[in-house]
Amino acid sequence: MILLDGKATSAAIKEEIAQQVDQLKSKGAKVPHLAAILVGSDGASQTYVNAKVKACERVGFESTLIELPADTTEDKLMETIDQLNNDDAIDGFIVQLPLPKHIDEDKVTLRVAPHKDVDGFHPENVGRMALGLPTFLPATPNGVMEMLGRYNIETSGKHCVVIGRSNIVGTPMSILMSRNSNPGNSTVTLTHSRTANLKEVCLSADIIIVALGKPKFLTADMVKEGAVVVDVGIHRIEDSSKKSGFRLVGDVDFETVAPKCAAISPVPGGVGPMTIASLLQNGLKAVLKN
Length: 290
Ligand code: GUN
What we know:
Layout: E1 2-3, H1 6-26, E2 33-39, H2 43-59, E3 62-68, H3 74-85, E4 92-95, H4 105-111, H5 123-131, H6 139-150, E5 159-163, H7 170-178, E6 187-191, H8 198-203, E7 207-210, E8 227-231, E9 235-238, E10 246-249, H9 254-257, E11 261-264, H10 271-288
Parallel strand pairs: 1-11, 2-3, 2-4, 5-6, 5-7, 7-8, 8-11
Antiparallel strand pairs: 9-10
Helix pairs in contact: 1-10, 2-10, 6-7, 6-10
The structure holds guanine (GUN).
Guanine binds near residues 95, 96, 139 and 168.
């Protein structure tokens, strides 16, 4: 069984990006400058945004973090987005999701200028992705693609089952896996809460990408021998045996599923770090304009 080590793979990508940043610097060219807007004080979002800022520093990008209080109005957020859209120093930015309930996420996504949308969430960029045109690819699904590619996992002609149809993971994941590319060229089944016979569908999968947000959802009886399993979930569950009182688990019941797999990504240390590497790749794209 191969462990798809996202931590090591992400470190290798970051090293490659750092070298490209050094080359830009030595030519006197602009170094990528990314910004993040964080509204409110959701603990998980703060952790993710801080990790993104740290990753920028590590590869030599400039970064700006804009923290707004939870009661920020939608208008004020739109104004902040417009400022970043119009600021030539900023090459790309993200608005960390989820947002407080009184703010319409769709409106926010539409307001980010497509050429600065390093999350790849704007409908124009989602459309470009679906058509296979150059664009910013969404970080988590692209991180999974990078992981499969760098481990030389054969995807062409394979049956790939994606569990979960969210806008930021499952749906774009299904598009990327079915595109005429390598990795890609899979026959994809996108499954969700209304899918009938999910277990049977999963048992016919060569590759299962799990992104539905339920701890330990995928169990050994749903996985065929020799399958490749990628776990996009991350959850804190109580564990009194740990000093912290909790541990992190994914959407996959790793202990029972792993022995059946040809390859599997762990949680933590799997898809999570790949997501950050992907965002940095988009940051580089934003300055190279390719
Ligand atoms: N929340 C969870 N994942 C993401 C992401 O990739 N981008 C943003 N902006 N928010 C998120």
